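REQUEST ID: PR-0412
SUBMITTED BY: lab tech R.K.
PRIORITY: routine
TASK: structure prediction, single protein chain
INPUT:
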Amino acid sequence: MGQAAWVSLKVLAIDLPLLFLLGTGAGWFLGRHSFRGRELVILLLLLPVALPPSVVGLYILLMAEKVAWFQRLGILFSFPGAALAPLIPAFPLMMQAALSAFEGVPPSLEQAARMLGHAPWRVFCRVTFPLVWRQLAAGLALAGVRCLGDFGTTLMVAGNIPGKTQTLPLYIYGEVEALNLGGAHAAALLLTLFGIASLFFVRGLRRGGSYVS
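STATUS: complete
OUTPUT:
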């Protein structure tokens, strides 16, 4: 189980910063810009969370087969694939949290700061971010749990290779197949504790201060 836990931690270490940067960036852009087709873009970005993991994995496989630059990444049945696969279904959770947060910030506050001569980055750091950081942190926690618990997408894209692409959910699958329920229970307990801790973290954020509405 140690190897699987280590692979899962490495995946999480890579995906959490990417989820924060990409999800926050997409949520900010969509929450602060109105353009033709915006709702369609939001729908497409949210779609992976509504699809079965096997469907998401299938589309990644098809892309890897058809798109030349994607082939050169060498993600199939490799650790990069194990890192990329859970990122896609977890991304909509972070993006939706960021989108809701930025939509809830009154534009008049940012406009007032700009009128006082503050640069856009200072407006974001001193006005916008303090109002949305709780929602961003909660979204990242939930997206991280989703990422850590991914099974179907990772299995299809990266395979179940011990020490290389086998994460904790895949380890549980392998242990159940081998009828080693003790090992499966241990890994399941670890994931359950992580999920509970994340939920306590999210609830703590809500108790610590109201989200922007």
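NOTES: The mean pLDDT is 89.
REVIEWED BY: pending
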